């Protein structure tokens, strides 16, 4: 049995999983619960591989193992499926469908192929269609012998209470700043100090999110956001610099990342702020949250969006007498 954790910072979760496997009555359904980017996907696949491993035999890769069945977002259409087959980026369907659940349930009518155990991974279970959740519930209530479910969830509250009640929860911890910095240095050694600081500030303890922020090169944007929060921006100078740092034609993903960064720096400011400023921070954060929900749908002008972000940060800035 492999005692090495498959994802950084999740040693406790991995040891809990291994201990459960050693027990006489292992629970048949698990919720892998935590924020995005904490390594739940890699963990689920490694956990499933340990579960179905047969001593003395060579095991296939988890993505092709006949006793590991993975339900995830399918390509949106035939053209996107071809992109996936060619190894190119592709768009997916919004939900995991009831047809996918039914195909999985049909598979459960047969015995495991290579051993006595089978693992079903649903990633993420948050995105199951309503009818798919109801269908899954039947399998969770009466699982075939030797079948184990691993439900990856970023927001367990979105699942039905009847699903949650049938699962043992395995919680994934947020990483500390030092662990995040080590992860960035390991996977993206070219990242400078500003880029790492921005990524750590925006990640809320998630190495996956932190690495994504480094890819979007938000170090300069983070520095300007912090200046606005500390100094205000009465002459719009910093907001203009912020727009220049964002660029005239930024990709949509970079705009969304900047929105998330702005929300994160506000959250970090909240605990130590006096009550009057806390209310301003909360109001600014609420508006940014609305913008974050609208931005993927509406085609906002990039320049106006970043100016709006800067304005909201300025509205929550430290009072000038305190800033001095």
From TrEMBL:
Leader peptide range in chain numbering: none
Domain of life of the source: Bacteria
Gene3D superfamilies documented for this protein: P-loop containing nucleotide triphosphate hydrolases (3.40.50.300)
Pfam families registered for this protein in UniProt: DNA_pol3_delta2
Family matches, as SUPFAM superfamilies: P-loop containing nucleoside triphosphate hydrolases
PANTHER family on file: DNA POLYMERASE III SUBUNIT DELTA, REPLICATION FACTOR C / DNA POLYMERASE III GAMMA-TAU SUBUNIT
Name the record gives this protein: DNA polymerase III subunit delta
Source species taxonomy: Bacteria, Pseudomonadati, Pseudomonadota, Alphaproteobacteria, Sphingomonadales
């Amino acid at each position: 049995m492999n005692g090495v954790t498959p994802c950084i910072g999740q040693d406790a979760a991995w040891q809990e999983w291994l201990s459960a496997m050693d027990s006489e009555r292992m629970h048949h359904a698990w919720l892998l619960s935590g924020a995005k980017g904490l390594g739940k996907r890699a963990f689920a696949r490694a956990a499933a591989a340990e579960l179905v491993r047969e001593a003395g035999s060579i095991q296939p890769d988890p993505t092709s193992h006949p006793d590991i069945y993975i339900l995830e977002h399918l390509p949106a259409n035939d053209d996107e499926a071809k992109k996936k087959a060619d190894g190119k980026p592709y768009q997916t369907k919004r939900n995991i469908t009831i047809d996918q659940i039914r195909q999985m349930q049909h598979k459960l009518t047969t015995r495991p192929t290579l051993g006595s155990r089978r693992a079903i991974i649903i990633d993420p279970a948050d995105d199951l269609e309503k009818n798919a959740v109801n269908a899954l519930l039947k399998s969770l209530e009466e699982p075939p012998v030797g079948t184990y479910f691993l439900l990856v969830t970023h927001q367990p509250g979105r699942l039905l209470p009847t699903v949650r009640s049938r699962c043992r929860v395995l919680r994934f911890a947020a990483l500390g700043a030092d662990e995040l910095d080590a992860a960035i240095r390991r996977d993206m050694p070219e990242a400078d100090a500003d880029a790492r600081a921005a990524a750590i500030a925006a990640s809320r303890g998630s190495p996956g999110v932190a690495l994504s922020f480094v890819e979007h090169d938000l170090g300069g944007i983070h520095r300007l956001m912090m200046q606005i929060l500390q100094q205000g921006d009465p002459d719009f100078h910093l907001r203009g610099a912020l727009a220049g740092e964002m660029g005239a034609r930024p990709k949509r993903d970079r705009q969304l990342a900047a929105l998330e960064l702005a929300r994160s720096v506000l959250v970090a400011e909240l605990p130590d702020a006096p009550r009057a400023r806390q209310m301003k921070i909360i109001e600014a954060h609420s508006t940014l949250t609305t913008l974050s929900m609208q931005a993927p749908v509406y085609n906002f002008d990039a320049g106006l969006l970043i100016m709006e972000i800067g304005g909201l940060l300025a509205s929550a800035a430290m009072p000038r007498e305190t800033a001095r």
